Amino acid sequence: MSGGEMRRLPRLKNPVRAWRNRRQQNHTDTAEEVSDCEEVLEQLEEVSRRLILREEQLFSQDSPSEEDQDQLHMDLEALSLQLWTAVDNTFTSSCSSSSSPAHLEVLKSAVASIQQQEEQDRRWTGCPEECVPAWRPQKCLSKHNTLLQNLVESRLTRAAQNQDSSTDSLSSSLKRQVCGMGRRVKEDLLVVVRAVQDCYPPEMDILNLYSGLFHRSFSARLTELAAAGPEPDDCSYLLFWINHCYPHEILNHEELKGKIKTACLGSLLLQDHLDRLEDQYLNHKEDKVKLWLNAALRKEEESWLSGQNPELLDRYRFSPLAVDVIQVIDSSLSEVSCVIRDQSKGHNRVTAHLDSFLSRYEKCVEEFMKGNHSNARSVIKAQLVCEQQLRDYITAQTGSVLEPQRRHCMDALSALKDCGYRCLTCPPQLKVGLAQLWTAGWADGSLPVVDSLLDSLDRQLSDLSDLMPTCRQSVLSVLQEDLVLQYVKRTLRTRTRSREQQVDGAQRMTEDARKIRDFFQQEGGGAPWLGEMLRSVAEVLRLQDPGSVQLEVVSLARKFPDLSGDHVAALLSLKAGLSAADVRSIRRSVEENRPLDASTNQSPSFFSRVKVKWIDKKIKQMLAC
What we know:
The structure is a single chain. Among the domains are: about 5-140; about 270-425, Tetracycline Repressor, domain 2 (Orthogonal Bundle); about 545-625, no CATH class. About 70% of the residues lie in helices and about 0% in strands. It has 26 helices and two strands. The chain has a two-stranded antiparallel sheet with strand order 1-2. Strand 1 and strand 2 (about 315) form a beta hairpin. The protein is elongated, with a radius of gyration of 43 Å.
C-alpha cells in the first residue's frame, strides 16, 4: 500500500476543534449529546486500530516518508486527546449517570484504545532505536494514571473551595473543607464501583487505583491542615474524619466493603502526626470534662448552702447532679469513641476524672453534714438518688472503666451511701437498743427488746416518705443488716448459759428473727437470708446433741462461707454442754465440708463483718481443756 493510500484511511476530522467545541457547549439537548457520544464511540477503537495498522505499514518500508510520519504522529496525538477527554469526563454527570450508557461506552472504548496502544508499545520493545517511531513508546497507561492523579487532585481542590449550602451549618472553614473533600471521595468512589469499573478490565483494578489516588491526595491535604495547628474544635473534627468517617463510612460503605484493599491504604495521617493530634484533642477534652464536673458540683454545693430543700420530682427529693455528670461523661465517651483510634486509652483518660470527681463529691457531702443545716435530711435524700444513678451507670460501663477505677468509684459511692444512712437513721441506737439481749427479762419475754427497737425505727422511717422508693429499699436493707449484725455480735459476746437458758434464748431469737423479717417486709424492704441466718444460729443454740449441733454448724458454714473457724469457735463457746473434743470435732468437720469453690456461693457476705478477736483467749482456754 502506498503512502498516499495510507493517508486515505479514515482519520479523525478536526479532533481538537471538535473536542474544544464540545467542552464549551451547554449540553441541553440529551439526544444530541448521546449522538455525539456515539459518533466518538464509532471512531475511537477503530481509529486506534487503523492508526496502529498505518504505523506498522509505514515502518515496514525501507525509508518511511517524513510527511507520512508527521501526519501519523498528528493523528495519534489527536486520538490521545480524544482518549484523555473521555477519561477526564469520567465523573461528569453524563458519564456517571446510569441514564447515559453511551458515555460509559465511550470511556470503555477509550480504555480499550489505551490497551491497544500499550500493546503496540510492547511490540516495539527490543527493536533497534533507529527503527522505532519517534513517538514510541506512547506510554498511554502511565499517562492515563497521571491524568487520574491530576483529575483526583483537581476534584478535591474544587470540593474544598466550592463549598455549597450543605456545609453552611459547619462552624469553621476547616470543617467545610474537610467535609467537602470527604464527601467528594465518597461520591466518586461510589461512581467508580457502580459504573466506571465496568469500563476497565479486571487486571487494571481501577477501584483500588482510584482509592489509592484519593487516599494519597486526601491525606496530603489533611496533613497540611493538621500541621497548621487547628483549634480544639477543628482538631476534633479532623480526627472524626480520619478515625471514623473515612475508614467506617467511606471505605466500609456497603457498596465498597471488601472491594477496597484498606490494609494497603493505612491511616490518612502518619503515626507521629496522628499521635500529636490525638494528644492535643485528649488534653483539651480532659480539661473540659474537669471544668464541667467542677461546675456541676459547685452549683450543687451552692444549692445546699442556700438552705433550700432539693426539688420534688414525682413527690420524691431529687437532684440533677447525677444526670448532669452522666451526660458529661457519656457524651465525652461517645465522642472519644468516634475520634480516637485506641478507644480504651481515650475512655480511661475521661473516666479517670469521674473517679476523682466522686471522691470530691463524697467529701463535700461529708463536710456539709457536719454543719447544722436545716435542709440536711432533704439534701441527703436527693444525694442518695444521685448515688444510685451513678452506681447503676458505672456498673453498666463494663468496657469503659478500668477495674481499679471502678473500685475507687464504688468505694466513694459506698462512703456517700453510708453517710446518707447515718444521717437518715441512728446506727448507735441499734447497739443501745440491743443491750438487754440475753438478759433474764429478754429470755422470758417480759422485756420487749426487739419490739421497742422496731417501734423506734418505725418512727424514724416515717420521715422517709419523700425518699425515692428504690433508695428507701436500699436504706432499709442496710438498716436491717446492721440490726442483725449488732444482734449477732451481742449474742457472741454473751456468757455461757445453762442448757435451759440456751433453749429459751434460742426460742426468743427465732421469734425476734420473725419480727425483724416482718417489720422490714412491711416497710417495703427486707432480706430473707438474714432471717434464715438468725434462725440457723438459734438452732445451734437450741440443739444439745453434739452430732446435731455439728450438722447444723456445717450447714450454716456451707450457706455462709465467710463463717470462719474463729466464728465457729465463738459460737460453740456458748454451748455449755460441749466438751473440748466435741468442739474440735465440729470445727474439723466444718473445714472438711466447706465448698471447694466458695465463689459459687450466692449468699451475701455477713460474718466477715463480725470481729471475734476478743474471744481468742477464751477459745484457747477451752481447747486446752
